[in-house]
Amino acid sequence: MTEVTTLASGLGMGESARWHGNELWFADWMAGTISALDGDGNLRRVTAVPSFPISFDWLPDGRLTVVSGADGTVLLEVPHAGLVPVADLRGISEFPWNEIAVHPSGNIYVNGIGYDYAGEAQDNGVIALIRQDGSAQKVADGLAFPNGMLVSGDGATLVVAESNAGRLTSFRIRDDGGLDPDGVWAGVEGSAPDGICWDGNGGI
Asked: If we measure between CA atoms, which residue out of 35, 27, 23, 33 comes closest to residue 55?
């Protein structure tokens, strides 16, 4: 029987787990924080975030990028200044923003659910592209609650989990950062796919 060990407790709502720099990073949506846990069980709080949903990734130069979902702000780690706003997505969608994925070029993709979560589900989810100069534009829409999202290592493909459609949807990434629909990457009917990551062998 597999042994289960508790490494951390007392979390409000743990989300957005990421393995980075030999630590398990995660957000606590209720506490409004991002923390990291090392292999010895030592927990450190990295930063506070203004509002949830909270998702994060790293630029190629190692700086942390964070979605402060309810206020539609994307934050960037700046040395000696902490997290500072780099893009405001409320002009693209007034509804909560969710997951983030960084391209090897440094471009950033962020998805938003596109409707009031307390209301009836809709297929109005969007993906925004934030370029390195801070400009933002919508590059995909019509998604059924976009959730977990990732970019392939070669920078050619973006995959997003559509929680309300039971599928992983693929896009080809153009040289200019735009997205071209590439069909269903995998169907997971009867499920509501959320967080996703590559398994190191071409699978998700």
From this structure: 27
Gyration radius of the chain over CA positions = 17
Q: Return the exposure string of 79-93: e unless at least 16 CB atoms fall within 10 Å of the residue's CB, then b.
A: eeeebeebbebeebb
Check if the beta carbon of residue 143 is closer than 8 Å to that of residue 137: no
User: pLDDT tens digits, residue range 72-90?
Assistant: 999 999 988 899 999 999 9
Instruction: Classify 150 as helix, strand or coil.
Output: strand
Within 10 Å of residue 193's Cβ, how many Cβ atoms? Answer: 22
Query: pTM above 0.90?
Result: yes
Which residues pair with residue 66 across a beta bridge?
A: 56, 75
Six token digits for residue 22: 């030999």
